[in-house]
């Protein structure tokens, strides 16, 4: 892996993890999520040492987790609870590595990829897709989760209509996220998964969106998903996949290697798939004009667009 020296990477990673864990364990994240507070008042409220609290806040600021404002310090993520859930989910890694599979109930994508981490990439995807799909597209979002990605598109295209597909247990959370964003009029909901449920009539969508789903499936499952997405699109419709691409026989970057480890928390079959493999699958399933678009974000995300022939 290139970049900073190994000693620097390891030292900073361990220190950052320790700082985040301490902030969660001590209640600092929860307190800062309630509004600005001065460091000394925060230390007194939580019965912490004042000097240690100041240093912890400075470290969190360096990580971009908190920032200093006129009235003290404030958590940067709009929902510190998301960061807390993220930390708790990663604590399952020890058992996942030991067993070679998720330990207990796998955390959802919204837990491991919360809004404050994915929103910049979602906005970029919406910008890239907006011109492609026109003013009033019919959009299918499979495994919609918190609908961050389709909500970003709905904000850019107010006349678009989104069909959000999600498993029955997770669909209420999708609905709540859409309602909170004030976009209920643009969304309808269907229960289902990659190979289950009714997505609506074949050939009825201008855009089919899937984020991080192929990497959770084995090769056969991913191929079946792509085949079903092809059927769902109208002739000339666009497929949009957002994935972390696997390396083409080279050593992975730090970000890519950590994402591969993250997949172990969620799926036995989870793998980051190389671009060449996606290209082969999409061609075999009848897609054309495959184009990769590099995205911003904590992991090397890529938007892959392809088209169902007219």
How do the helices and strands line up, and which of them pair or pack?
Elements: H1 6-25, H2 28-32, H3 39-45, H4 50-62, E1 66-69, E2 72-75, H5 80-90, H6 93-99, H7 109-112, H8 115-133, E3 138-142, H9 148-156, E4 161-166, H10 171-180, E5 187-193, E6 196-197, E7 205-211, H11 219-232, E8 233-244, H12 254-264, H13 275-284, E9 288-294, E10 301-307
Parallel strand pairs: 3-4, 3-7, 4-5, 7-8
Antiparallel strand pairs: 1-2, 5-6, 8-10, 9-10
Helix pairs in contact: 3-4, 8-9
Bin the strand percentage: 15-25%
CATH topology of the largest domain: Rossmann fold
- Helix-strand string: HHHHEEHHHHEHEHEEEHEHHEE
Low-pLDDT residue spans: none
Average of pLDDT: 89
Largest sheet: 8 strands, mixed
Which structural class do the helices and strands define? alpha/beta
Which value, in Å, is the CA radius of gyration? 21 Å
Please name the CATH architecture of the largest domain. Answer: 3-Layer(aba) Sandwich
Strand order of the largest sheet: 6-5-4-3-7-8-10-9
Q: Total number of helical segments?
A: 13
Account of the 3D structure:
This protein has 310 residues and is α/β, with parallel strands linked by helices. The protein has 2 domains: 1-76, Winged helix-like DNA-binding domain superfamily/Winged helix DNA-binding domain (Arc Repressor Mutant, subunit A, Orthogonal Bundle); 111-307, Vaccinia Virus protein VP39 (Rossmann fold), CATH 3.40.50. It has 13 helices and 10 strands. The protein has helices at residues 6-25, 28-32, 39-45, 50-62, 80-90, 93-99, 109-112, 115-133, 148-156, 171-180, 219-232, 254-264, 275-284, and strands at 66-69, 72-75, 138-142, 161-166, 187-193, 196-197, 205-211, 233-244, 288-294, 301-307. The strands form 2 sheets. An 8-stranded mixed β-sheet has the order 6-5-4-3-7-8-10-9, with helices on both faces.
